[in-house]
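Give me the fold.
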Amino acid sequence: MFNFTRYQWTVLLAAWLGWGFDVFDGLLFNYVAPNAVPTLLGLEIGSPEARQATLYWTGVLTSILLLGWAAGGVIFGLVCDRIGRTRTLLITMLLYAVGTAACAFAPNMAWLVVFRIIASLGIGGEWAAGAAMVAETVPEEKRVEAGALLYTAAPMGLFLATFVNLQVAGNWFADQPEVSWRYVFLFGLLPAGAAFLVRLFVREPERWKNEAAAAQARISDLFTPDIRAYTLSGFLMALVALLTWWSCNAFLPVISSGLAREAAVVQGLSEAATLVMVEQWKTLATSWFNLGGLIGTLLTIPAAKYLGRKAMFSIYWVASAAAILAAFGIDWSPEVRLYLYFAIGLSVFGVFGSFTYYLPELFPTRLRATGSGFCYNIGRVFAAAGPFIVGSIAAQGIDAATSVLFFVGFIPLAGLAFMPWVIETRGRTLS
């Protein structure tokens, strides 16, 4: 099915590690927020004040992360088209590794914000470099398979984040929640080792080297008469996906923690047993979400190849709306609601498997990373409003959180309204 050469597999692995650790570092805060936020604010972990502050700051810091992510995506997209895919991938991986690990030493909320901004610049910049490098290296007829395989790194990165948090906060330092989150952040250094794989074994794609002399990309080039329709197409699809995903997933650990605490009260559990249950439920919810995302990502391969890109996007938008509205619009038990995150992952998460091949298909080589980075990341400026609004409302309590998430289900329906502006790229050869 794949039929890649050994070197093409090496390139795919390097980009896969870069994106997987990108997601791993980007989402670590969401796992440790229930412990980190109260500690930095001087609140008692698990108290009503702490839960309210955690919901609020999860929204604020996620929005800040998305703004930094957008800036990094645009900046390093330009850098990538100028200095090359490999060097940009190395720089961005080191940047987000150091920024995430530095969060472990944050003395207060202000410094945590600073370190998250540093990490977000690298996180945003890595995606375009990896996607462009893979698209330009693999055979034309295998670009969809390679792009979807590349994005499987995202759910694997979340699986790793879930596992690290469970081991550190749920087992090794279960009785020290005020410090366990710092050790979780230290695992953010893992990508630094993977970065050297890129440096040692991956070279610049021939397509880029052939265009390097002319590769003086500018953002304004994306809005010339012959390019702007492609820019709009990529931007609209990425915007819908990003706004939906971040409004849902940013609060997944917090929502599952709140549901666990409600169930613990009903069962009459002690505080120690409640903390264990909270970590277990976070793992359960995120695991189902990630598993759905992994399967949904792979399903974009047959959907894109046999139905086309426009039909694929339409199917995923309908499925995303149905999954969210059903999960948060019906009065399920807490346990059932956690399992329904599988359907949300299958659709909301799975659609992202298409962007690693769809966006590079839209642009010529000299603008490939610039255009892909712009479309995939500038939408985060708009998407940043989602977690902030959801977090502000969710701070009123778990019932308010599930109610506002229900309305997030209408966002994917906007994607259907944008379909007339979406450009079909099935069968297209990279220019």
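The chain has a mean pLDDT of 82.
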